[in-house]
Amino acid sequence: MPHDNVMEKILIGKIVSAVGLKGEVKVYNYSDSADIYANTEALYVDDDLMPVRSVRTQKNMVILGLEGIDDRTAAEKARGREIFVTEDDLPELPEGQHYIRDLIGMEAVQEDGSHLGVVKDVIQNTAQDVFEVVTDEGKQVLIPSVPAFVLEINEETGRITFRLIEGML
Questions:
Q1: How far is Cα 31 from Cα 34, in angstroms, rounded to an integer?
Q2: How far apart are CA 109 and CA 118, in angstroms?
């Protein structure tokens, strides 16, 4: 993917409330683990880069201490602000795993090489992820992300090869 010098920011959470009196904030975490908060020296709160003072988790929430949010008043004011990292902060994924944002917009082709459409989204609230593909005709096709249907994901070519069964289209 072509990169210019503007770093893409990736949304990883949202501040939902103040915690205690020292300016800690409770964050609703959009990423699948809290590690990204602990492994990143500074996070963007909207457009402000703020060094991370402390990170702890409480149930499924992340409690963050950020430089620049030093008391309860500042923490209250931060409610609703979104937290981002840059692409450089993202951990390298193990072989065979992909960030969803990298899959969206990829070309969808069928096993025989014929063009199917474009990946519009990856739906994650089901037992397994589901690719939402929009065909050239504008139809929506939902394809479960299982080896029987997803033959290859090639980030170099920007192409995902799917095997469709009758009734999918």
A1: 7
A2: 9
Please calculate the CA angle 119-162-146 and round it to the nearest 5 degrees. Answer: 95
Find how far residue 44's CA is from the centre of its chain: 15
The two tokens of residue 127 are 């037992």
Cα–Cα distances in angstroms (integers) from residue 95 to residues 30, 53, 142, 153, 160, in the given order: 22, 32, 25, 11, 16
pLDDT tier for residue 7 given thresholds of 50, 70 and 90: low
* Higher per-residue confidence, 52 vs 8: 52
Nearby residues of 47 by Cβ (< 8 Å), 6 or more positions away: none
Tally of residues, the chain: 169
Average pLDDT along the chain: 88
The rounded distance, in Å, linking the Cα atoms of 4 and 15 is 29
Helix (H) or strand (E) holding 153: strand 150-154
* Pairing between β-strand 82-86 and β-strand 130-135 as defined by DSSP bridges: unpaired
C-alpha triplet 164, 165, 166: angle, nearest 5°: 125
Q: How far apart are CA 161 and CA 151, in angstroms?
A: 5
Q: Using an 8 Å Cβ cutoff, are 162 and 131 in contact?
A: yes
Number of other residues whose CB lies within 10 A of the CB of residue 47: 9
